[in-house]
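S.,

As promised, the uridine-5'-diphosphate run. Input:
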Amino acid sequence: MKKTVLVTGGFGFLGSHLVEHFLKEGFAVVAVDNFCTGSRSNLEHFKAEISQGRLKAIEADVSQTWDSWVGVLESLPPLSFVFHFASPASPPHYQRLGLETLAVNSIGLGHALKTADRFGARVIFASTSEVYGDPSVNPQPETYWGNVNSFGVRSCYDEAKRFGEALIYTHNQKHQTQHGLVRIFNTYGPRMNPADGRVIINLLLQAEKHEPMTLYGSGDQTRSFCYVDDLISGIVKYARSNLTRPINLGNDHEFTISQLAETLQTIYTDRKLEIKHLPLPQDDPKQRKPDLTLAKRLLSPWTPQIQLREGLIKMRACL
Ligand code: UDP
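Predicted complex:
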């Protein structure tokens, strides 16, 4: 066996793709999850790796003490990375689990840093494009400080992630460590939680079921959607670099939500997809597009490969 990686939120959408990536590379993997939004089914195809002891699945809340399970790392190859990906991430979930979201990105991240330091490993923290809030600059470069409401329905997520970034920065300064973070923009792909309420999984499932697609507001708001494989390859490249600064990761092709619906219509050629307009949620950002200049330069030759229509076809095949 090579080395070990620990993935908090290992049964979540992105966490489970990281687990899969490192298992395929021959690593031992510890996946920790409290299943508040993650799902056991996300790793059920790795039963063989669990029985071989290459994948350790631990049910625990990483905002609580790690004492009862962290000893498992002593019996595995040396720990190289701790990916701190545990957190509710979609608006309906983090609004329902606001205090848990604040805790896992602060106290939980503190535990991840402590454990990584003890084992000489590097933490990679899942930050988010939400640190830019409802941006007044488009596309958003890493140097943009954001336009964030600290006292509203999204603040438990946005401010928790901003706190996490500050914690990484300050911890590195104080302890001369090399932990890092990536700012993840809208990502989609197989194993998205259908209950997430995210636009791509919502619209795809509605199209599958011959139901009208729900477009919030006018549908003129924009997002830039990254297929999960492109995101994971960027995260892995970042982890293996010595970067500690925030880097945007995503896809820089920007679509309005109406254009997303039109793209889906080109895939579902056997039916007419109806559209139902619903009110725009509070504090819904009007536009979002990553400036990937830094990522493309510092993680060269990384660049997103899979464009929206192709990714939607791949995702549909996995439904
Ligand atoms: N959205 C939509 N219909 C849906 C779900 C979401 O029109 O069924 C909109 C939502 O208001 C937002 C965009 O799609 O403007 C992306 O929403 P999502 O929840 O996927 O991600 P986020 O707002 O966090 O970028």
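The mean pLDDT is 97. The CA atoms of residues 125 and 180 lie 6 Å apart.

- D.
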